[in-house]
Design goal:
Number of strands: 0
Number of helices: 18
Distance between the termini: 22 Å
Helix content: over 70%
Radius of gyration: 22 Å
Shape: globular
Oligomer: single chain
Largest sheet: none
């Protein structure tokens, strides 16, 4: 097998190992979302969403982005085969995370009345936010353990962690929602965070590394570079969460809590169920880039391969999703959530653009280019909030879907421009022929969704879905020889 085909095999294997687990995770998420939708309704989902957004906002502000920046440092240290350097980096990370986790919890407790006022327009949820702050400690500790596993490219451990933690989250949440209804929201958030930490800690303890004693002061001094990049990533994360927070407040003020529940239901489908494809790919992609971040030729080749496979994997998913949107919404939630169909149809189109800009954007992070990253984060988050508010103001939920598509298009163009003029890295013209074909097929499927229900509509859906699956299979087969890949995968499992 030549080096190029071997590289494609490695990407596909990493995506398959982690992505295969996603089938079960999706199943757990579907059950949990379905139960929450039926028992809590749009209002309950709105409350759950606002509490989680508040938690994530404080977490993003206080975590210093260490869960991302540490992956780069650990991966780079690991690529040099320096065991002591890896161990020291892990020790530095663990020290800093304890500080950020405790600081975040104290801040959340102190600011709970203000946070309740901002989210719910009253202080009634101050106590709930104080209880939720417990989850923040475990959330940051969990993220640090997973960052170590990702930096060392322990994909199997990460996959098993996701499977077990999601299953335990399901076991806890469903009975609580069933017996205690809305009152179960806070206990469910906290218990899920605790269980996730315990599972992550179990896999972290399986890693063999030297224990390096280091003080908090030394950790922050020696981890200066990690902190600088982490702070930039934290700003980006915080801005994204702040933008989502402000958008939810705007929707709540304009359309009510029920509209937030509907919006979040659509958001979960796009960013959790469809987004699992991106999570599966990034688990190995980011540490891979971090290990070669000084070699632009290798970076460009890795980006091309990842973009190529990402597009081929996502193409049939997007087209199938467009054809089955009403069925998916009713299956995942209930008929109460049918108003989100238009939002989903526009938003899912943006996933094709996101699949490529996602791969390009990681170049900036792998490079550790903090200044560029912060500037683009500010630009993109202001843009996203602006177009979303405008979209909702003009077209309600459907307008939000349109605004997502506009945002992903601008994001793709700007990121492509930055990595070309900043690093000389670009996607070759041969890739754009496939990219254009994928866009055309997705747009045609989108247009078919507006035809009246009947034989013609179903026939066109069947034709387009078949074409997309054939295109993906043919192109993937040329790169990895699917039959041989599947045989090697099953042999590995045995």
């Amino acid at each position: 097998m030549n080096e190029t085909k071997s590289s494609y095999h490695q990407i596909m294997k990493a995506t398959t190992i982690y992505g295969g687990v996603q089938i079960f995770i999706i199943l757990f998420s579907v059950i949990r979302s379905k139960v929450a939708a039926l028992i809590l309704g749009p209002k309950g989902l709105g409350i759950l969403s606002l509490l989680l957004t508040t938690l994530n906002l404080v977490n993003g502000f206080t975590s210093l982005g260490l869960d991302k920046s540490s992956v780069k440092d650990i991966a780079f240290a690991n690529s040099s085969l320096d065991v002591f350097k890896v161990s020291k980096t892990i020790s530095i990370l663990k020290k800093m995370v304890w500080f950020t986790a405790l600081f975040g919890t104290v801040l959340m407790v102190v600011a709970s009345p203000l946070l309740s006022e901002l989210a719910f327009k009253n202080k009634d949820y101050s106590i709930a936010i104080i209880w939720v702050s417990i989850a923040l400690v475990f959330k940051q500790l969990t993220s640090s353990n997973i960052a170590v596993l990702q930096g060392l490219r322990k994909l199997k451990y990460i996959a098993e962690f996701n499977l077990i933690s999601n299953f335990l989250g399901l076991l806890v949440s469903v009975p609580l929602y069933y017996f205690f209804k809305i009152e179960a929201i806070v206990p469910s958030i906290v218990l899920t965070a605790v269980l996730s930490y315990l599972v992550a800690f179990y896999f972290f303890k399986k890693i063999k590394f030297e224990s390096v004693k280091i003080s908090f002061k030394e950790a922050f001094i020696q981890g200066k570079e990690m902190t600088q990049l982490g702070f930039s990533l934290s700003i980006s994360s915080m801005l994204g969460l702040l933008g989502a927070y402000l958008l939810q407040i705007y929707i709540s003020t304009t359309g009510g809590v029920n509209q937030i529940g509907l919006y979040m239901a659509a958001y979960v489908i796009l960013n959790t169920y469809v987004g699992l494809v991106f999570n599966a790919m990034s688990t190995d992609y980011y540490p891979k880039l971090a290990g070669i971040h000084n070699d632009n030729k290798k970076l460009q080749f890795a980006m091309y391969q990842q973009s190529y496979l990402a597009l081929l994997i996502l193409l049939p998913i997007v087209v199938l999703f467009l054809a089955m949107t009403p069925f998916i919404v009713k299956t995942l939630y209930s008929t109460e959530f049918l108003p989100i169909i238009a939002l989903l149809k526009w938003g899912i189109l943006g996933m094709i653009l996101k699949s490529v800009s996602f791969c390009m954007g990681y170049i900036i992070i792998a490079k550790g280019d903090s200044k560029v990253f912060v500037k683009t984060a500010i630009l993109f988050n202001i843009l996203l909030l602006g177009v979303n508010v405008l979209g909702y103001y003009i077209g309600g939920l459907e307008g939000l879907g349109m605004s997502f598509l506009v945002y992903y298009f601008v994001h793709f163009v700007v990121i492509a421009f930055i990595i070309f003029y900043r690093y000389g890295i670009y996607l070759e013209s041969s890739f754009y022929f496939l990219f254009l074909l994928a866009i055309i097929l997705c747009v045609l499927t989108f247009l078919v969704t507006y035809l009246a229900q009947g034989v013609l509509k179903n026939a066109l859906f069947f034709l387009l879905i078949t074409i997309c699956f054939c295109v993906s299979y043919y192109k993937l087969n040329k790169k990895i020889d699917i039959k041989m890949f599947m045989r090697s995968l099953f042999k590995r499992k045995k």
